[in-house]
Structure formats: structure tokens, C-alpha cells
Amino acid sequence: MSAPERIPPRSVTAPAAGAGPHPAELLARGELTVRGRIREASNAALFCTVVLDGRQASCVYKPVAGERPLWDFPDGTLAGREVAAYEVSEATGWGLVPPTVLRDGPYGEGMCQLWIDVHAEAELLALVDAEEPAPGWRAIGFAEVGEGRTALLVHADDERLRRLAVLDAVINNADRKGGHLLPTADGRLYGIDHGVTFNVDNKLRTLLWGWAGEPLTPEAVDVLKGLRDGLAGELGRRLAALITAAEIDATRARVDALLASGVHPEPSGEWPAIPWPPV
Ligand SMILES: Nc1ncnc2c1ncn2[C@@H]1O[C@H](COP(=O)(O)OP(=O)(O)O)[C@@H](O)[C@H]1O
Ligand SMILES: [Mg+2]
Predict the structure, then answer these.
(1) Residues 159-186: tens digit of each pLDDT
(2) What residue spans define the domains of the chain?
(3) Pocket around ligand 1 at a 6 A CB cut-off
(4) Nearest-CA neighbor of 112 among 75, 65, 62?
(5) Which NCBIfam families does this entry report, sorted A to Z (predicted)?
(6) Cα 100 to Cα 115: distance, rounded to the nearest angstrom
């Protein structure tokens, strides 16, 4: 894939007067200072601040130079796919991915994503000693918990997770773990870590199987129709700078398949459907 061209930050929501630049613009144009390295990251991930016109934000910067090659993702970059996931999320209007841009930094080109302050809320995931999920929960599957015992892995029956399940099906997320779900104090939920997405083969690996086989909500159907139109226009053009043409075609095919089936996808059986460990 050729080097991605710089994409101008979008202006989806006009910031209130005096509120300063849109977060994506702050991330794209702000002065980037590395503050530290995120230890648990599997690729180089740096905690940074960006400053623009007196406005400051924290962000994570993942330079392309720090990416480990992946045999099943030979084209493109993790950083490009992270930005592509943000673009698709923005096109849904659900705002499920923190503002994410490609930009230059002290270790070269990389992705920069707004840092989300996590506010612990009621658990989104649980392992329970039961055959069926309790009301308010959805079953993911049974898990071995040692000594031949199994427990039921469940996730919350939460409309934000349900939207994320649709987004993941569209972007073909191969790694939706619990640790990549970030709830905020104002009641929002963000998904992060979208480097292994958009593969041309079905690699959906997620915890969010609680609605598998059930009808998509009317809202999700509307959003998918919007994505179908977007992929033929503006969204498709934005993605062309980030992922391969074959990956865009496959994304279009996944959207069409979701609309044709009208249901949340089920595990394909060809690929481990649940990330392990789940957090
Ligand atoms: N935008 C963000 N806001 C808040 N925390 C983040 C953000 N991005 C990453 N993190 C934290 O950094 C950790 C490592 O980042 P992650 O995206 O999972 O990197 P990797 O691709 O190496 O797995 C995450 O598990 C999370 O705790
Ligand atoms: Mg991770």
C-alpha cells in the first residue's frame, strides 16, 4: 500500500464558540510531547500531550515504526486501520471510537488517539456459575475455569455494547476484549485498540456475541444503510487513504451481508470467536 496521504480533520460537530478546535484538529495539528510509555501495550504505545492554541489534551501515540509485523495482516499498518475504524465510527454517528488521526511525531508517522479517562462503572463483563444469564446480561459462552469446571461468561445487555457489536461486525474486529471497552464519567462508552480490523477474511473475534442471530435494531439498519451510501462516497474516499481497495470492498460486502441477513452475525466456526484471556 502506498504511503497514506494526510487527511484533513473532519468537522462533524461544530465546536461551541470559544470551545477551541475539534479534538481531531487538536490531535492532528497540536504540538506532541511524549510523557511516557504504556507498559502493557503489545506494540509501541506512548502516552503524550498535544497543545494547540492554548488547548491541551492527553493522547496515545502509536508510531508505525513500533509496529510488529503480523502474518495475517501483511498490507497497510495498524495505525492506518485504527484511524479507519474511527472514520467508520464517525460515519455511524455513534461516536464509539475516540478521535483518532494519522500524523507525524517524534518517532515518525503514527496514530494519535484522544486519551479517555476511564470511570469505573457497573461491570460490563462477568463470569457466573450458572447455565443461563440473569436478566440484564447476555451469554457469550462457557469458559474453562480450572479443575474441570466451567463458568458462563456474560456481558451486559447494554445498548452501547450492542452498537459496538454492529461496528465490530462492519470493521471485522479481530480483537474486541474487555480491556478495550472504556466507560466515561458522562455515561459514554468507547472502544479502543483497532489495529487488527478490516481483514478481507472473516476474523470477527469478540466478547460481544450476546445478540448473535438476533434481529438488528431498526436504528442499526438505518446506520448500516448510511454506511452503504457513505462507502460509495465520502467515507469510501477517506478509507482509500488508510486501507487497501480490497479491504474497502470487503467492508462494503460485510455491510451488504448484514443488511441482507438483518441479524447480528454468529461465529463462523473457522476462527476462535472469543479472545482469550477476555480482558
Ligand atoms: N485512547 C485511550 N484512552 C485511554 N486509555 C488508552 C487509550 N488507548 C490505549 N489506552 C490504554 O493503553 C493500553 C494499551 O493500548 P492498546 O491500544 O491496547 O495497545 P496495543 O495495540 O499495543 O494492544 C490499553 O489497554 C489501555 O489501558
Ligand atoms: Mg491492546
Answers:
(1) 999 999 999 999 999 999 999 999 999 9
(2) 23-261
(3) 38, 40-43, 45, 60, 98, 113-116, 179, 182, 192-193, 195
(4) 62
(5) SCO1664 family protein
(6) 10
